[in-house]
Write a structure and sequence with these properties.
By secondary structure, this protein is α+β, with helices and mostly antiparallel strands. It has five domains: 78 residues; 101 residues, OB fold (Dihydrolipoamide Acetyltransferase, E2P) (Beta Barrel), CATH 2.40.50; 199 residues, no CATH class; 38 residues; 110 residues, no CATH class. Helix content is 52%, strand content 14%. It is built from 21 helices and 21 strands. It has a six-stranded mixed sheet. Strands 14-15-16-17-18-19 form a six-stranded antiparallel sheet. A hairpin with a 5-residue loop joins β20 and β21. The chain is globular. The protein starts with a helix and ends in a 19-residue tail after the last strand. The model has no long low-confidence stretch (mean pLDDT 82).
Length: 677
Amino acid sequence: MRRFFHKLFLFLSDRIDGDQNRYLAIVPFLYALGIALYFGLPIEPNPWLILSAVEILLFLLYFLYHSAIRPVLIGILLMMIGFINIEMQTAYRAKKVMFPDQETIYIQGRVQDVGKSAKGKARLLLTDLQNEEGLHLRGNYRITAATAQLPISVNDCVEMVATVFPPSPMPLLNGYQLNRKYFYESLSAIGYANSEIFPIKCSVTPPINLQARFNQIRHRISMKIAALLPQQTAGVAEALLIGEKSDIPPQISDNYRNAGLAHFLSVSGLHLGSIAALFFFLIRWLIACIPAIALRFDGKKIAAVFAIIFSGIYLLLSGMAIPAQRAFIMTSVVLIGVLCNRRAISMRMVSFAALVILILSPQALISISFQMSFAAVYALVAFYELYAARLSRLSKSPSFIGKVFWYLAGIVICDFVASLATLPFSLYHFHMVAAYTSLGNLLAGPLIGLYLMPLVLVCLVSLPFGFAEWPIKALGFGIEILNRITDTVAHLPHSVLRTDSLSFTGFILIVIGGYWLCVWKSSVRRIGLIFIICGALSLCGGKHPLAIIAPNGQGMAVSDNRHQMILLPIIKTDSWIKQVWQQNFSLAELPACAIKALKSGKDDLVHDDLTCTVKGCLYREKLYIQKNGDVTLNKQKIDLTAGAYIYQKKNGEMYVRPLWNKARCRPWQKCFRQTKN
């Protein structure tokens, strides 16, 4: 066995030595591995032990620098640096965030941002918070008002009585941890106002905050768009211009997701790349129109500088989402390549963008947008490097019809590669696949590239001068056509294919295999296919839960004979939990007339293996759910603090699996011991 691994090591070393220019692509992978190791730990690590381990590693690296083990030590060191970075970021956030208990309190604070909830209510992000005793409250609070409109803007100070509660834990097994996301956004609590929201005089002059200033501008643009366009198009227009998606109606958002065009609603490479390119050529054209400048200076380099500045402004205006940050870094590198007369589209550029984001925001690794965005870009760059020359020869057509054909073919090919790269993430996070994503992108691609994105640039340029009314209306006209396209594609038969979730192990194997396949150029890259196949096989062994119970019993659903999850009518399900379950399962509700008869006590409810009375529901003669929320399995009470999945063994016995281990108390969980000061 030792001889086998020695030969394997020599084989890999020999093949990888031919790809020395790809070593930089391994750096962000190892750095990210250290960050992932931190999030995978069951407890918070001791920082002194980590520092001791780093000192020992540096000691070994110093004395073994010229040995064959040096690359391994350097790789471990990169992992440790990523681990330390995220641990420091977490310790810093832990000092800023304090999760409260659910309570109704008086609060006053400064408005950092103004948005809208899914139901169209005004939503405020408050900072510099105080309670009625004048004590400082750590972190930010997100409060939803009772009305849709408030005469309040960013940097105003307000007071109110509100009910606040900590972020909800995940209602899915291996699901997305919303409480962890809020923790790294310094969001301590969410809630709703019980009273009117009163503006008050700020006791302290607001600090100069560039993002707050841009939030003010974003709010003004949002109000202008809402006044000019109907709601169904205004929400999409806001998403394109300022990155605000809260005003998009749920049905429209579902249509875009089911048609494979959800990426269009998030400011990313498509938007920043298009805006930078259009602005670049606009400046070049303007310079060419002025001979005095065009004959003395290199217009291409001047245009590149202005394009970087303008795309940076668009980044700030769009809210600086992770895909937008990645796109800005990559766009800037390309334009800097123009300044230096260098070609910049390469794996190194993508790896550099990933490393910069992970150094500045290591918590971005666990965000779905980061994972899917970089997966798509890595795959597209790898595909471009392998097949660009061949496709370029095929696409050289002198006829107009030939050029149109290859333009449409390019859309389909790029979409297929990106969709294939992001497929594991869709399966793991969303348990679904959009079946007609290529058709949706083929129909919408020309409209987006040739009409909508140029109009977005016109709107951005005209907004500061006050004559954006007609460009916004023209943008709304194009969005209406795009909405019809997404609605048609989304309602085709079997447009959404739902599957069992990938196991975590299978997901990791596919990610490692895909990364290995994209990074290397030599034949050693094919080893990645082995990892991908092994990870994909985990889909075959997935178990379908018989029942789902949300944390603290905030919602319950059971599976019928068609593997469709049915919400229990006697338990009120939290709206957010219901939304998450609808996105991840084939969730349904029982007929309203049957539920009404059950609640009135006139009739019992029978549905497959479920029998409900006014007092409770019995599922498969073993699982009993009472109206007060207590759940017993085989007459044994279940602890619902962490929520649970109910599975069935081969012998027919049911067993419980908690959604998360209560022993794992990390800083983003309510059970973590927090200091008061």
